[in-house]
Amino acid sequence: MKYFESRKARIEIIPMIDIMFFLLVFFVMTTLHMIPDAGIASRLPTSATAQTLPKPQLTLAVDAQGLIHLKQQTLSAAELEAQLRAQPHPDELQVTIAGDGEVALQKLIVVMDACRAAGVTHIGLAARPAGGA
Fold this sequence. Notes:
With 133 residues, this protein is α/β, with parallel strands linked by helices. It is built from three helices and seven strands; from the N terminus they run αββββαβαββ. A hairpin with a 5-residue loop joins strand 2 and strand 3. 15% of the residues are buried.
């Protein structure tokens, strides 16, 4: 009788591979979102109409004294323009300027002018939503 015949047990590894791949992708994606952007601490101004921008390729920080910070460096407007020109495609570069709430508007305009002079056309200003902490 075939009912009482002993069958050899098989271990299906395809579902196990699928689960391991899913876990790998999950941990990689989680780790990428855990890496903080380096920068200086500043109090961003608030805006009632703030919108979420695409993740910038470069984030410039302008402190209350008007100093420009890029990747742990303090730069002048001319040095910033030179560094942006040195990028492979400055016209496709996305730059976000995170100005302190106390920074003078003229300092932000100087930074924006340096970006535009380097050929950057995608410039955003960072702000917190109104009522945010």
